[in-house]
Amino acid sequence: MGWTDALLTGIKEIDDQHKVLFDVIARLELSVTEEDKWSAVHFALVELTSYVTIHFAVEEALMRLHDYPDLDAHIGSHRAFSAALADIKKHSIREDVSEAMTTLVKGWLVQHIGKEDQAYVPHLRSAPLAGSAA
Ligand SMILES: [Fe+2]
Ligand SMILES: [Fe+2]
Q1: What is the whole-number distance in angstroms between the Cα of residue 97 and the centre of ligand 2?
Q2: Residue 21 lies in a domain
Q3: Is residue 3 a contact partner of residue 19, using CB atoms and an 8 Å limit?
Q4: What is the pLDDT of residue 122?
Q5: Contact in structure between 101 and 92 (CB atoms under 8 Å)
Q6: Which domain range does residue 91 map to?
Q7: Which of 73, 113, 121, 129 is the most buried (most CB within 10 A)?
Q8: Rounded to two decimals, what is the model's pTM?
Protein backbone atom coordinates (compact mmCIF):
# COMPACT_ATOMS: atom_id res chain seq x y z
CA MET A 1 0.00 0.00 0.00
CA GLY A 2 1.39 3.36 -0.99
CA TRP A 3 0.51 6.94 -0.21
CA THR A 4 -3.15 7.91 -0.38
CA ASP A 5 -4.75 11.27 0.35
CA ALA A 6 -6.72 9.56 3.14
CA LEU A 7 -3.46 9.84 5.11
CA LEU A 8 -3.34 13.65 4.85
CA THR A 9 -3.34 15.55 8.13
CA GLY A 10 -3.80 18.99 6.58
CA ILE A 11 -0.61 20.18 8.35
CA LYS A 12 1.71 20.90 5.44
CA GLU A 13 5.10 20.13 6.95
CA ILE A 14 3.83 16.86 8.39
CA ASP A 15 2.16 15.84 5.12
CA ASP A 16 5.32 16.65 3.17
CA GLN A 17 7.39 14.52 5.53
CA HIS A 18 4.90 11.63 5.45
CA LYS A 19 5.07 11.66 1.64
CA VAL A 20 8.87 11.54 1.76
CA LEU A 21 8.60 8.60 4.18
CA PHE A 22 6.51 6.74 1.62
CA ASP A 23 9.14 7.50 -1.04
CA VAL A 24 11.80 6.05 1.26
CA ILE A 25 9.62 2.98 1.83
CA ALA A 26 9.21 2.56 -1.94
CA ARG A 27 13.02 2.57 -2.29
CA LEU A 28 13.23 0.10 0.55
CA GLU A 29 10.83 -2.22 -1.28
CA LEU A 30 12.89 -1.89 -4.45
CA SER A 31 16.05 -2.71 -2.52
CA VAL A 32 14.90 -6.29 -1.91
CA THR A 33 14.89 -6.93 -5.65
CA GLU A 34 18.50 -5.84 -6.15
CA GLU A 35 21.22 -8.33 -6.84
CA ASP A 36 23.25 -7.32 -3.83
CA LYS A 37 20.11 -7.44 -1.74
CA TRP A 38 21.58 -7.53 1.76
CA SER A 39 23.64 -4.39 1.46
CA ALA A 40 20.91 -2.59 -0.54
CA VAL A 41 18.41 -3.44 2.20
CA HIS A 42 20.85 -2.36 4.89
CA PHE A 43 21.49 1.04 3.32
CA ALA A 44 17.79 1.57 2.69
CA LEU A 45 17.24 0.91 6.41
CA VAL A 46 19.96 3.42 7.30
CA GLU A 47 18.18 6.01 5.14
CA LEU A 48 14.80 5.23 6.68
CA THR A 49 16.21 5.42 10.21
CA SER A 50 17.68 8.86 9.69
CA TYR A 51 14.54 10.23 8.05
CA VAL A 52 12.22 8.73 10.65
CA THR A 53 14.36 10.21 13.46
CA ILE A 54 13.98 13.70 11.98
CA HIS A 55 10.27 13.25 11.36
CA PHE A 56 9.56 12.01 14.88
CA ALA A 57 11.50 14.94 16.36
CA VAL A 58 9.50 17.47 14.31
CA GLU A 59 6.18 15.82 15.13
CA GLU A 60 6.97 15.58 18.84
CA ALA A 61 8.06 19.24 18.94
CA LEU A 62 4.78 20.29 17.31
CA MET A 63 2.69 18.20 19.73
CA ARG A 64 4.65 19.61 22.67
CA LEU A 65 4.12 23.18 21.45
CA HIS A 66 0.38 22.55 21.41
CA ASP A 67 0.30 20.69 24.74
CA TYR A 68 -1.11 17.56 23.13
CA PRO A 69 -2.56 15.46 25.98
CA ASP A 70 -1.54 12.09 24.45
CA LEU A 71 2.03 13.23 23.83
CA ASP A 72 3.65 10.60 26.08
CA ALA A 73 1.78 7.69 24.48
CA HIS A 74 2.60 9.02 21.01
CA ILE A 75 6.28 9.37 21.88
CA GLY A 76 6.19 5.82 23.30
CA SER A 77 4.85 4.58 20.00
CA HIS A 78 7.62 6.40 18.08
CA ARG A 79 10.26 4.95 20.43
CA ALA A 80 8.91 1.41 20.04
CA PHE A 81 9.08 1.68 16.26
CA SER A 82 12.60 3.16 16.38
CA ALA A 83 13.74 0.30 18.62
CA ALA A 84 12.24 -2.34 16.31
CA LEU A 85 13.79 -0.61 13.29
CA ALA A 86 17.20 -0.45 15.00
CA ASP A 87 16.97 -4.18 15.76
CA ILE A 88 16.17 -5.07 12.14
CA LYS A 89 18.92 -2.74 10.90
CA LYS A 90 21.42 -4.46 13.18
CA HIS A 91 20.43 -7.90 11.88
CA SER A 92 20.46 -6.67 8.27
CA ILE A 93 24.26 -6.67 8.36
CA ARG A 94 24.36 -10.46 8.32
CA GLU A 95 20.85 -11.78 7.66
CA ASP A 96 18.14 -11.46 5.07
CA VAL A 97 15.64 -9.24 6.89
CA SER A 98 13.59 -8.22 3.87
CA GLU A 99 10.41 -9.94 5.04
CA ALA A 100 10.59 -8.73 8.64
CA MET A 101 11.43 -5.27 7.37
CA THR A 102 8.52 -5.03 4.94
CA THR A 103 6.07 -6.27 7.55
CA LEU A 104 7.30 -3.89 10.24
CA VAL A 105 7.76 -0.79 8.15
CA LYS A 106 4.67 -0.90 5.99
CA GLY A 107 2.40 -2.28 8.68
CA TRP A 108 3.49 0.13 11.36
CA LEU A 109 3.85 3.31 9.33
CA VAL A 110 0.55 3.00 7.49
CA GLN A 111 -1.25 2.20 10.73
CA HIS A 112 0.56 4.93 12.69
CA ILE A 113 0.13 7.67 10.11
CA GLY A 114 -3.47 6.63 9.43
CA LYS A 115 -4.57 6.39 13.07
CA GLU A 116 -2.22 7.79 15.73
CA ASP A 117 -1.03 10.77 13.69
CA GLN A 118 -4.60 11.54 12.64
CA ALA A 119 -5.56 11.60 16.32
CA TYR A 120 -3.49 14.74 17.06
CA VAL A 121 -4.83 16.71 14.10
CA PRO A 122 -7.98 18.22 15.69
CA HIS A 123 -5.97 19.20 18.77
CA LEU A 124 -3.13 20.82 16.85
CA ARG A 125 -5.60 22.75 14.74
CA SER A 126 -7.66 24.08 17.64
CA ALA A 127 -5.39 24.35 20.70
CA PRO A 128 -3.34 27.51 21.22
CA LEU A 129 0.43 27.22 21.47
CA ALA A 130 1.60 26.33 24.95
CA GLY A 131 2.87 29.41 26.74
CA SER A 132 0.98 31.85 24.51
CA ALA A 133 -1.19 34.47 26.19
CA ALA A 134 -4.65 33.18 27.09
FE1 LIG B 1 4.07 11.02 11.49
FE1 LIG C 1 3.66 10.01 14.89
Answers
A1: 24
A2: yes
A3: yes
A4: 93
A5: yes
A6: 12-126
A7: 113
A8: 0.89
